[in-house]
Design a protein that fits this description.
alpha+beta; Cytochrome p450; 2 domains; six-stranded mixed sheet; three-stranded antiparallel sheet; 18 helices; 15 strands; globular
Length: 501
């Protein structure tokens, strides 16, 4: 007891000193945005932010308005919440706001991949060449074949396929899309049954990594979890190695194009292996979760389901199996599905919650649409969170929390692109793929992959909720800011393959 008092006193002095130092280190200067450092030295609002980013930013927005700077773990982030002011940030032509450096630091930490010069540009050029136009059509065919293998099996549907099967909807969507996407991009061996089993095992590991991912990014893992993450990273580097892929056929031209560039740059083989892990994550981390929300919204809205089924029947005709082994429909019809396009855009509005971050390379003047100007310091970060500031803005999207399958359709059935805020037409009315230099280069492929899956489900399967009255589960608050959100809990459903003529 005698020893405790001096120790506690010393600790109190240290904590008080740190708090005072924190208060002294940074003060708001004239013309800077409102500054909210929080009460924890260095950490600032980091813990509250990581616990529930959406609620934290909503509170900051109510307190400070459309622009504010917060301290998060020793770093200062200025959040801009007025979408009418996004343009200068996204279109920054003087390269004062840098995305690439921030992205490189993230992929180095998460995937142990250190990008070489030109990689960012080659990803975009390869995506333009192979994930659009004829290249996209070829990859769509590979996706359709892979979905046939995953959903029907290597020998076609079994006699029990037409019986009802119960499953968890999120796991079903995530696993099917992951396995099909993985096989479409990384190719096959001569043993399709073994390929399917390998893809299943890889998904199990991928899902575990995915569950650790948010806390991994924030460095909040426990000692055993850090070890587990390291083991998972090593496993993926090994399973996706260039050496193993050489034994496969049908590797996508998109992936092959980028790997060829890395070889020409004499990139270490280990870094090529890690690059493959980055590409697998980028291509398959969001499609399954998005399809979960899309199917759930359709199951909860029979009018929407009816509209999608009618469009599929009109555009694609009667469902049939080729040689009783493969789903068959004209892939060019994907360009003629405005109802499904609206469903997917609405699903992404409700579920996609990316954070767009730019690092300020030199002192920057932030010009708002209102005419107000703010000084942002070199080294700070400017961040946009469109889910709150755009997707959930009732001025832009009336009843923003409600799924409206035709929200992005005009009365004549064409795509609706005219949305307004404060009476002004707004350019950034949804931002599920990011924007500007950080826009997802694989968005056209991802959207096609998800549409093919949804069309297969509505054309070839009967499926329904086990409990039709089950509410839509809330979003897992740990996933805010990391692409497509995930549900806080699973939803049971049942499905069966329709009898084919």
């Amino acid at each position: 007891m005698v020893l405790c008092s001096p120790v506690l006193g010393a600790l109190l002095i240290i904590v008080t000193g740190c708090l005072c130092l924190s208060m002294m280190v940074r003060h708001r200067r004239p013309q800077e945005p409102p500054l909210d450092k929080g009460f924890m030295p260095w950490l600032g609002h980091a813990m509250t932010f990581r616990k529930n980013m959406f609620e934290f930013l909503k509170g900051m927005m109510a307190k400070h308005g459309d622009v504010f700077t917060v301290q998060l773990g020793g770093q200062y982030f200025t959040f801009v919440m007025d979408p009418l002011s996004f343009g200068p940030i996204i279109k920054d032509t003087k390269k004062t706001l840098d995305f690439i450096k921030y992205a490189q630091e993230l992929v180095l930490k998460v995937f142990r991949y250190k990008p070489t010069d030109g990689v960012h540009q080659i990803i975009h050029s390869a995506s333009t060449k192979h994930l659009m136009g004829q290249g996209l059509e070829n990859l769509n065919k590979a996706v359709l074949d892979s979905l046939s293998l995953v959903m029907l099996g290597p020998k076609g549907p079994s006699p029990s396929a037409s019986s009802w099967h119960e499953a968890h909807l999120f796991h079903f969507c995530y696993s099917v899309l992951f396995k099909a996407g993985y096989l479409s991009l990384f190719g096959y061996t001569k043993d399709k049954a073994q390929d399917l089993q390998d893809a299943e095992e890889l998904f199990t590991k991928f899902r575990r990594f995915d569950l650790l991912f948010p806390r991994f990014v924030y460095s909040l893992l426990g000692p055993r979890e850090w070890i587990e993450v390291g083991q998972l990273q090593h496993l993926f580097h090994q399973r996706l190695s260039v050496e193993q892929n050489l034994e496969k056929d049908g590797i996508s031209n998109w992936l092959g194009h980028m790997l060829q560039f890395l070889r020409e740059q004499k990139t270490d083989v280990c870094m090529q292996d890690r690059f493959n892990f980055v590409m697998l994550w980028a291509s398959q981390g969001n499609t399954g979760p998005t399809c979960f929300w899309a199917l759930l919204f359709l199951l909860k809205d029979q009018k929407a389901m009816k509209a999608v089924k009618e469009e599929a029947a009109r555009v694609l005709g009667e469902a049939r199996l080729e040689d009783k082994m493969s789903f068959a429909f004209t892939l060019s019809a994907l360009k003629c599905t405005p109802v499904l396009d609206s469903v997917m855009e609405e699903t992404l509005r409700l579920s996609a919650s990316p954070t767009l971050v730019r690092v300020v390379q030199k002192d920057y003047v932030l010009k708002m649409a209102s005419g107000q100007e703010y000084q942002i310091r070199c080294g700070d970060k400017i961040a946009l969170f469109p889910y709150l500031s755009v997707h959930m803005d009732p001025d832009i999207h009336p009843e923003p929390t409600t799924f409206k399958y035709n929200r992005f359709l005009n009365p004549d059935g064409t795509r609706k692109v005219d949305f307004y805020k404060s009476g002004k037409k707004i350019h950034y009315y949804t931002m599920p793929w990011g924007s500007g230099v950080s826009i997802c280069p694989g968005r056209f492929f991802a959207l096609s992959e998800m549409k093919i899956f949804v069309l297969i489900m509505v054309m070839y399967f009967d499926f329904e909720l086990v409990d039709p009255d089950v509410p839509v589960p809330p979003i897992d608050p740990r996933r805010w800011g990391f692409g497509t959100s995930q549900p806080s809990h699973e939803v049971r459903f049942r499905y069966r393959l329709k009898p084919m003529q």
